[in-house]
Specification:
This is Uroporphyrinogen-III C-methyltransferase. The chain is of the alpha/beta class and about 475 residues long. The chain is built from 17 helices and 19 strands. Strands 3-2-1-4-5 form a 5-stranded parallel sheet, sandwiched between helices. Strands 10-9-11-8-12 form a 5-stranded parallel sheet, sandwiched between helices. The protein is elongated. The structure holds S-adenosyl-L-homocysteine. S-adenosyl-L-homocysteine binds next to helix 13 and strand 19.
Length: about 475
């Protein structure tokens, strides 16, 4: 980040603009939203500038800017639409000690003006460091549509009520109150007119003051396979509101970034110095945080109900009388088949699909290999990297066709997704040879739709 976004108090400060043409007018429209004292230097100002001057909204000086004209200015804009003149006045303003912006000249500017969504006092500033103005405009348009036009009004009324709201203890209780106001009680009251908002705030405060101590609860949330776009809306909402997020090792940082800024993040899958947390420790942690009245999100990769040791955690909650619920997620198998353009089930090929693990707590996991070895069978094998040789051996031993397609998908849905297209006969040593380091799932009985190309890609990568 080269430019650090801040909100500057311009009330009563001096802002100087050199230029009175179209580009100055565009900037002035923004600056005049503030309470700054604005002075414009221009020998030939547009009529709009003259009107603003006549209305007393700015001071107009009918000449070009000279030395000392930008003294005491907090900000200075060179907006002459003419490079040489902009450079000249920028040098003068810098000498006068002002922070200088040359319109449409990022390199020579000391600050830049973001795209702004104005719901005063709520202001959203969008910047792309000059890299993608189109993107900034698109985001602005999106936000303009999304943020109710009357949000500013709610915020202004809310601001006047801040003092009264201090009757609620700082922290969660007060946050809950404000969330209720902005997203529920406030907008509803506004429908009956502006005068209805303040009484609504008073009765809302009463309700919150009388509320019993809040009980904590746990949401077991599926974080999906890694791509944050594959989170459900419900998962997004849970992350938005969570006070404590206890997550697995496989949950990506892109997903964790969506957790509320104030949330406490606990990495339950920490590797490195120590080994990962034991299941008992995780259970204890979940129950402890919920017991302290917190909203706990237990974030598990993929879907929490698939090889997630969910039941043990639920039992711990039940034993401690902690309320819980489950938010499903996209499991690795779904992401992996999507990645290779295949279906998990297909008419006349397989009417059932097996979700199995090659490795469980006791070691290699036995399955009904005989039925899986039949023609057209499909299985998604989780945690299969370590047990690939065992699975391969068992299936061949039970008569599976050595030419059965097998596809390994590593880092499904992530930017570094890799696909290894092979056959049962060649699964090992191909898999070991590929040296995969990310989470990988083995799709038995499925080949990628574009098998040849993908296989070539991988071969090339292995060769490198
Ligand atoms: N609950 C998870 C599975 C947890 S078990 C889910 O529903 O996806 C962990 C195993 O899931 C890994 O060993 C790997 O086999 C698989 N896995 C998880 N994320 C993956 C990803 N992005 N790509 C491929 N496999 C993944």
């Amino acid at each position: 980040m080269q430019h650090f976004p801040i909100f500057m108090n311009l009330a009563g400060r001096r802002v100087v603009v050199s230029g009175g043409g179209e580009c100055a007018v565009a900037k002035l429209r923004l600056i005049l939203k503030t309470e700054a004292h604005v002075t414009v230097f221009s020998a030939e100002p547009e009529s709009q500038v003259i009107t603003w001057a006549a209305e007393g909204r700015l001071t107009l000086v009918h000449r070009a800017l000279g030395p000392g004209d930008a003294l005491c200015a907090a900000l200075f804009y060179a907006a002459n639409d003419e490079d040489a003149e902009d450079q000249r006045v920028a040098a003068l303003a810098r000498a006068d000690g002002a922070l200088v912006n040359i319109v449409d000249n990022l390199g020579d500017s000391q600050f830049i003006t973001p795209a702004i969504v104005d719901r005063d006092p709520v202001t959203v500033a969008i910047g792309t460091e000059g890299a993608a103005p189109v993107l900034a405009r698109a985001i602005k348009r999106d936000l303009e549509e999304r943020l109710p036009a009357r949000l500013g009004l709610l915020a202004r009324i809310g601001k006047a009520f801040r003092h009264a709201a201090e009757a609620l203890p700082f922290g969660e209780k007060r946050r809950d109150f404000w969330a209720d106001y902005y997203f529920d009680a406030g907008p509803r009251a506004l429908e009956d007119g502006e005068e209805a908002v303040e009484p609504a705030l008073r009765s809302l405060l009463d309700t919150h003051l009388n509320r019993d101590a809040r009980e904590g609860f746990v949401e077991f949330v599926g974080a999906g396979p890694g791509d944050p776009d594959l989170l459900t809306l419900k998962a997004r909402k849970a992350l938005d509101r969570a006070e404590v997020v206890i997550h697995d090792r496989l949950v990506t940082k892109e997903v964790l970034e969506l957790a509320r800024r104030e949330a406490v993040l606990v990495d339950a899958g920490k590797e490195g110095f120590g080994k990962s947390m034991s299941q008992e420790e995780i259970n204890r942690l979940i129950v402890e945080h919920a017991g302290a009245g917190h909203h706990v999100v237990r974030l598990k990769s993929g879907d929490p109900t698939v090889f997630g040791r969910l039941d043990e955690e639920i039992e711990a909650c039940d034993a401690a009388n902690v309320t819980w619920s489950i938010v499903p997620g996209i499991t690795a198998a779904s992401a992996a088949v999507a990645g290779i353009g295949q279906s998990l089930t297909k008419r006349e090929r397989n009417s059932s699909v097996r979700v199995l693990t090659g490795h469980d707590m006791k070691g290699f996991a036995e399955q009904d290999w005989r039925s899986l070895a039949g023609p057209g069978e499909v299985a998604a094998i989780y945690m299969g990297k370590r047990s690939a040789r065992f699975v391969q051996g068992r299936l061949l031993m039970h008569g599976a066709d050595p030419a059965t397609p097998v596809t390994v998908v590593e880092n499904a849905s992530r930017p570094d997704q890799r696909t290894l297209a092979t056959t049962l006969a060649e699964l090992e040593p191909t898999l070991t040879g590929a040296g995969l380091s990310g989470p990988a799932i083995i799709l038995f009985g499925l080949a990628p739709r574009r098998a040849a190309e993908v296989a070539q890609d991988i071969q090339r990568e292995i060769a490198l």
